[in-house]
Structures are given as C-alpha cells and as structure tokens.
Amino acid sequence: MELHLRNPPNIRRSSVTVMSKKNPDSDSTSQPQPVQIRKFSKKDLSRILRTEAAIKAIEKKANSSKYNNLWPKAVLEALNDAIKQNRWESALKIFDLLRKQHWYEPRTQTYAKLLVMLGKCKQPNQASLLFETMLSDGLQPTVDVCTALVGAYALNSLFEKALSIVDDMKSVHNCNPDAFTYSILIKYAIKLHWFDMVEFILKEMLHSGIECGTVTYNILIDGYGKAKHFRLMENSLNDMIQSGNCRLDIFTFNSVIGAYGGCGRIKEMEKWFDEFRLMGLEPDLMTYNILIKSYGNSGLYGKMGSVLEFMKKRFFSPTVVTYNIIIEMFGKAGDIEKMDEMFLRMKHQGLKPNSITYSSLVCAYRRAGLLGKVDSILTQVANSDVVLDTTFFNCIINAYGSAGDIEKMMELFMAMEGNGCKPDNITFATIIQACRAQGMLDTARDFEKNMLNVKNTSGRKLIG
To answer: Polar residues: which segments have biased composition (predicted)?
Structure first.
C-alpha cells in the first residue's frame, strides 16, 4: 500500500520518534523501540525554548495594532535572535512591530543588520523595500547601510542595481563608497566570472583615490583562485607584495595553497607553502586542514599522515574539522576500515562528532551497501545531543531510500521539521527517486506537487 502525504513540508510534531527495524530473529510479540532523533542538554533546551518562545510571542503581537508600548528589551532581543538565525520573515514582522512602539527611534545600524540578513536569505526585493522604509522613517543613507544594500543585490547577481546604488552614493553627502563597498562588488563580480567588471571596479577605486589594501587584495587572490584563474591570482599576489603597504597574512597564505590544492595541483601548492614560510608566514590549523584535504582528494593518503605528524611536532592537535576531512577522504575512497579507525580515534581523543561527521559516515556506508552500519549511526545520534542539519537528513534518507526501506525513509522525513531542519530540493528529489524505484508512483507525484508548492515569497511586502 502506498503512502500519501498531502502536505509534507507543513507536517509538525511535538515529539518525533523513529521506529527501529525489528530483528527477524527476535520475539515477534516484542514492540519496536522508538529512536529519538535529537536530545538536548537541560541548559541548551532551556535556551532554545526561551529564544523560540520569545520570537513567537513577539510575532503574535506583530499582527495587532494594540501592542504599541511593549517592553523594549523583549522586542529588541527577539529581533536580534531572528536576525542571527536568518529567519527573515520573523525578523521583518518583529521589526514592523518595533516601528509601532511609542519609544521607537529609527537607527541606521538596525537597517544595516536587516539588509545584510536579507542578502544572505536571497531576498533582494525585500531589501529594496526595507531601504524605502528607512527613507520614510526620515533617516539619511549612510555608507554602512548602502554597502549592505549593495551586498544584498550583488550577492543575488543583481549587479546593475548594485552599481546603481554605488553611483547614487557618490551624490549623497558623507556617503561616498569606501574600500569595503568596492571589495564587496569585486567579491561577487569574481563569483559571477565578470573579470572585465573587476578591472572596471579597480579603476573606479583608483579614480576615487582609494588604494587596494590587504583585505581587497585578499578578496582578489581568493576569488581568482576559486575561479581557477591562477595567472590573475598570482598577478594580484605580486601586486600586493610590490605595493609596499600591504602585509601578507595567513588568509593570503591559505587562499593560494587552497586554490592550487583544491584543483589537485599539488606541486604548486607545495611550492607556495615553502615560499610563504620563507616570507615569514607560519601555517595555522586551517592551512594543515587544506593540505590534508588536498592530499586526500589526490589519493595521496601517505602525505595526509605526514601532515598529521608535522602538526604533532609543532604542537597542533587535530580538531573536529580535521577529523571530518580525514573521515570524508577515506569514506570517498571506500576504505571503510580506515575511516572507522579514524572515527574511533576522534572519539578517544575526546572530540565530539557533529552532523558533518555523521553525514560522511552515512554516505560512505551507503556506497558500501552497509545499511546495518547506517542503523548504528542512527542509534548513536539518538543517544547524543548532536545538532543535526538538512544535509545529514538528506544523506540518511538517501541511504534508506536506496536500500528500498521506504517506511524508514518516510519516518526520517517526518522527523526533519521536528529537528529544526527544512527539506530542500535534494530531499524531495531523493524521496521521489526512491518512490519511483519502488513503483510508488502516486507517492512520488504527491512529493512533486509539494515541491512545486514551496512558493517564493520574496515579492510579498512584510513591512509597512
């Protein structure tokens, strides 16, 4: 019999449990034990509940006109929490309530924080509306606010609008674009591979009397490196060195070796590692992690071990991030024994596995066809207070879906929202593919409809 979900993304449960599989050799009358996906310490649970309750309580009041003299601390803390969590709809509702308070005084800093958040949340239209609201509040644009708006547009590939704001800034008193404004434009222009635009922006900077500093050069070096334009990267590095007023730092170091290492150009990576050390720069933990990942992706597992020894001699201890990289590398290589060994070593050293660790393990076990080990990971997660994310659920849903265990896959899908994780396109595509493979075409169509029904609300005005 097929399972039909009318509106899966909106399903909520106050407490979510996942039933473990019955052992075929066990007593048939025994009841399966519930596996709780997520636990919290009392302290963490108290903090989370306080934050959630505060945001929801203030949100409820946002739709009423009678709440215009609330306690300032409650409203401001709820707004800050919503911004930190990138909950843009909640943040805008709370901000609208804030503006209705008798004690409200408009501040450009608040607008700047909201604009940065909206850019991160892919809401450039809301950012534009918020900027108009700021003007209606009687505030004059500042460099920080305009730069935040430029970033919101540029981050979402609306470069013409971003450049238009920069031009407008030049005509506003005390609002000329600064090095940070131009650096943001450069960063996103490189991401879009608009290299001619980068040159144009650099010329604009010089024309405005703004010289490239360490931050701008580092953005150029990192951006060109990630875009695999190594000649431009090295040209920027040479310009930085020859400028005489820019000091190379660890970010420069890691950007260059990360660019070469990420593309498997190990010789260049090792050459620049030595060059930077001769210049007086010493590697940090991130440098070592870059080396380990680069060697692992190139199949040079012996050199991964050499880096660990190098770290030990210099009194650097591997962190959770280091072990996550190593576990991922051995998992991708199909070396389950070595991966499990590193996982045990990680725990023996007192390091707490996180969602990334468990995602890598689940993916490796799935590829190796070891569903029993996936069950073991689910049990470990249930007995820990690890904070899970959508990536973990996508991995484990894929594992059970690939194995044809549709019931467990659906239970995990239902558990997502209870754990604060929203399903994404990968979640839906994985479930649809698994259902089709099992001939559950009606269920697959239900999920396709729900995926299409996740509407983009970016055009809806939430303020004013």
So the answer is: 12-34
